[in-house]
Amino acid sequence: MNHPTTGLARRSLLIAGGAGTLALAAGCGPSGTTASDAENAASATPKPGGRLRAAFAGGGAGETLDPHAANLFVDAARSKALFDKLADFGADLAPVPRLASGWEPNETLDTWRVTLRRAAFHDGRPVTAEDVLYSYRRIADPKGTFRAKASLEPIDLDASRALDPSTVEFRLKRPYAEFPNTLAAFGAYIVPKDAADFSRPVGSGPFTFVSFKPGASLLVKRNPAYWEGAPHLEELEFVIAGEESARVGALLGGQVEYAHELNPATARAHEGKGRIDVVRLPGSSMQGFVMKTDRPPFDDKRVRQAFFLIADRKELVDGALSGAGEIGNDLFGKGCRYYAAGLPQRTRDLDRARALLKEAGAEGLKVTLDTAPAATGFVEAAGIFKEQAAKAGVTVEVKVGNKETYWKDILSSGTFASYRSGAMPIESHVSQRLLTGSTTNATKWQHKDFDDLYQQAQATASEPERTALYERMQRRLYDEGGFLIWGFADWIVATAPTVRGVSKTAPANTLDWARFDKIWLA
C-alpha cells in the first residue's frame, strides 16, 4: 500500500479542499430522465436537517466523554463527533491531515514541524499550538493510562514547543520515520488547554454537546462553524444497545436509523429485502486469540506454536463469521504496507501440535479461554476452538465474561482470550501492543531485542531497509508471538433506507468510518 505522507519522498504535505472527505454518490441524469431517476438523483443530493439515531454497543454506566480515555468503537465515534485529531487514517491507512494542514521533518527525522489549520473550539476559542501540546502532555502523563500514551512515547514533550499559535515543533527522543502515524493515533484528540472536566465537553469537532447519559445515550447538535463545513444533520444521537439483536430490532422498528456492527448471519438474512441497507467493509477486523507469553502455560513458546497448529482457520471463519471474511496467518495487517506476505500460510497439523506439547511437558493440558459477547463471533469462535483443541488432547474451558468490562478484564488477567482489532498501520499495532512499554499489550510480549528492532526501523529513512526490519519483526512473531490470528472479518453496519453518505470503503477506526458529519437523511 502506498503511504505518500510517510515515505519521506515528500518533505512536507499540504492539503486544500477537505482531503479525506467522503465523495457523494453520483446520480444526476440528463434532461428527460424518468421520475425514478429524478428521485434517485435527489436522494444523492445532501439534504440538511433531521436527527439521526445511531445504535452502538456500549461500555456501561462508567462511560466517559473524555476522548483520551476512548477504548471502544462507540467511544471513538462519539469522540470523532465532538473532537478532532491532528491527522486520521485514510482508507489505505495513510495519515490524512485534519487539524494539521501539513508536517515536515528535518534531515535526521528527529524534529517534525506541524502546521495547524484555522479551526475553533465550540466556545469560539481558536485551536492553537498550546492546545496541542497540552493535549499530548495530558495523554503522556506518567500517572495516566490513556491508550495513545504508547503512541506518543517517542515525543520529547518537555523539549517540544509552540513556535507560534499555528506551528508546533515536536522534538523526538530518536529518529522516527513514521511520525505522522502518531498524529493519527487512536485517542490522540486535541482538547482545549487546561481541559479536565468532560461532563460537558468542548471540542473542535463537527457536533457540539447537548446531553449525556452514560450507558444510555449522547445527544449532539450541528456545529455551524466547523472548519470543514457544517454537518448535514441537525442532531445526532448515539444510543447504546449492547446486544446485536437489540440494535437490529431498533433499526427494523424505526427507533434508530444506523446500527453498528451486525453479525454476518443477520446481515445475510436482511440483505436485499428493502427494509434496511447493509454496508460491508471487507477484511476490516482482525479476529483471533491472545496468549499471555509471561505466564504458564504460554510462557513456553512450544505451547504457543502448538496452538498455532491446532487452529483450523477456515472452520473458524466459516463457523464464527458465517464465511464473511478471510483466513489469517497469525500476523496483523493482512494486505497492508510492510505485511510479511511471503511467510507460508499456516495450516492445521495436529501431529506436530501434539509433539510440541509433549516436548513442553504439557500433555493433557487444560486452559481457560476467556470470551464474552463483546464482539461478533467471539463466543462462537471460542466454542469451535474448544472442539479443535480437544483433537490435540487439550481441554479448553470456555469462560464467558461480562461484555461491558471484557476489554479491561483481559488486558492483565487470565492466560488465553478472544481478541479483535479494527484497522491500523502495522507500525501502530507494534507500538501500541507489542513493545515493553505498550499500554494495551494483551499478550505481554516484552522483549528488549524486539523493541530495539522497532526503534531501528523508525530511525531508518530508506523504505526498503525499513521494510526488511519489519519483516524480521514479523518472522519472530509468526514463530513465537502471542497473537493467534485466525481471520479477518468483514465489518458490517446497517442503515435505514433513508440514510445517505455512509462510506462503503472505510475500515473501522479510519477517517470516513462513522463520519456522521457527512451523512444525511433523504
β-strand percent reads 15-25%
The count of strands amounts to 21
User: From the alpha-carbon coordinates, what is the Rg to the nearest angstrom?
Assistant: 23 Å
Figure out the total of helices.
Answer: 15
Low-confidence stretches: 1-42
Q: Could you describe the largest sheet, including whether it forms a barrel?
A: 9 strands, mixed
Class per helix and strand makeup: alpha+beta
The overall pLDDT, averaged over residues, is 90
Q: Distance between the terminal alpha carbons, to the nearest Å?
A: 35 Å
Helix content: 25-40%
Shape: globular
Descriptive report:
With 522 residues, the protein is an alpha+beta fold. The protein contains 15 helices and 21 strands. The protein has helices at residues 35-43, 73-82, 129-140, 149-152, 179-183, 244-252, 264-270, 301-310, 313-320, 350-359, 378-390, 406-412, 426-433, 448-458, 463-480; strands at residues 51-56, 84-85, 87-89, 95-97, 100-105, 111-116, 161-164, 167-171, 189-190, 207-213, 217-222, 235-240, 258-260, 277-291, 325-327, 366-371, 395-400, 416-421, 483-495, 499-500, 520-521. The strands form 6 sheets. Strands 1, 10, 11, 12, 13, 14, 15, 18 and 19 form a 9-stranded mixed sheet that branches. A 4-stranded antiparallel sheet has the order 5-6-8-7, covered by helices on one side. Helix 8 (301-310) packs antiparallel against helix 10 (350-359) and helix 9 runs antiparallel to helix 11.
